Amino acid sequence: MKQTVKTPEAFLGVGYTHDRAGLPLEAVRIPVAQPAAGQVLIRVAASSLNPLEYKLAELNFMGRTPPVGLGLDLAGVVVAVGHGVGDVTVGDAVAALADLDGDGGWVASGGGEGGYALAHRFLTARKPPSLSFLDAAALPMCFLSAFAGLHKAVQTGDTVYVPGGGGGVGHLAVQMAARALGARMVVSSGSTPQSIALARQSGAQHVFDYKHDDIAADIARLTDGRGVDLVFDATYSEQGFVESAKTVRRGGSWIVLGVGPGRTTRLAETHSPVDAILAERGAERVDVNLLRYFSEPGTLDGEARALLRQGMDLAMEWAEQGLVVPHIGRTIDSAVDAINAGLQSLKSGHGVVGKVAVIVDRDLALGTSPGAP
Ligand SMILES: NC(=O)c1ccc[n+]([C@@H]2O[C@H](COP(=O)([O-])OP(=O)(O)OC[C@H]3O[C@@H](n4cnc5c(N)ncnc54)[C@H](OP(=O)(O)O)[C@@H]3O)[C@@H](O)[C@H]2O)c1
């Protein structure tokens, strides 16, 4: 007989309550739906912040009408499974990325009711007992972004440049290239002593200051004038894109996360010289975008699902092995004010190194509940 756990009809989450641009988020009532075929329902222990959560209003809520609950990175315990999910069961400790066009699992006040969120099975992985809920919840969005950009692109012995190796995606990308995928040399950059230190700790042999150094010249010097085999740029910086494009070798790859040069504001398209710089070098531009899978459902085909599922499984495996380990620069309780303050820091680019973890259910996240370390 199928196990069931009693769940409330709704909980008080955090998100957008009506059509308005950006922060602050507010308390929002989120219905707890039962999982459809291929989905699991998770009682959320921990989450983390992602820039997408302050950008979602600008993205027209990915086609939804508010209320929209946020907290898309999830770690917690499965409380119900939908039809066709046989290999994850009620009581399993998991990490997951909530469906990007569904609701997340933050709660408006950490002391009260629990947060619940649905995730597709292919975006859910079993959490190893040695990995904390907080670490597991820091991985899904940023790890999958780095994985989608790098896993097929990096060949053993490659030289790789990851600008912004102190960022959420960047520090995992540096570790992935250097420790899991066999790059020979990883170069990175940052603008503060803390982010530069994190890029270095993550495995970058050379880390430059993008506000003061001429990184293209430094990389040319390090590579006997050739440039790196590939760049993975997840910085969403127009100026940064131009600089990082100049570091790719002839015939190399420039991989960009998101909508790419000339479109980072979403509101207006601007001219970008990046394609011309790449063409001059005969370098390939590769666009990687997780959001596209959800805003254009046709792109979420069997291959994309398999890639995301493999990515979620490897996120857990590599974290357990100590190869790709999230750096939690700050931990906050899930509460409206704390989340708004955290997202504001992320948006301003000041005061966040690595990831901001969110404790959604203190007992579950830090206690001795199933799967806790
Ligand atoms: N579409 C998608 O699939 C997708 C998925 C995930 C994330 N994203 C987007 O990717 C971006 C990064 O996400 P995140 O979580 O890593 O954000 P984050 O933690 O805020 O990191 C941003 C990083 O960019 C660095 N940076 C900014 N300007 C730079 C420049 N000119 N040169 C080099 N580095 C620069 C910052 O370095 P310092 O702090 O040292 O200044 C920081 O390390 C966000 O815009 C996010 O929305 C898109």
UniProtKB/TrEMBL annotation:
Q: Which UniProt keywords apply?
A: NADP, Oxidoreductase
**Does Oxidoreductase count among this protein's keywords?**
yes
Domain of life, per lineage: Bacteria
* InterPro entries, alphabetized: ADH-like_C, ADH-like_N, ER, GroES-like_sf, NAD(P)-bd_dom_sf
Q: Where is the Enoyl reductase (ER) domain?
A: 22-358
Name used for this protein in its record? Zinc-dependent alcohol dehydrogenase family protein
> Which species is this UniProt entry from?
Streptomyces lannensis
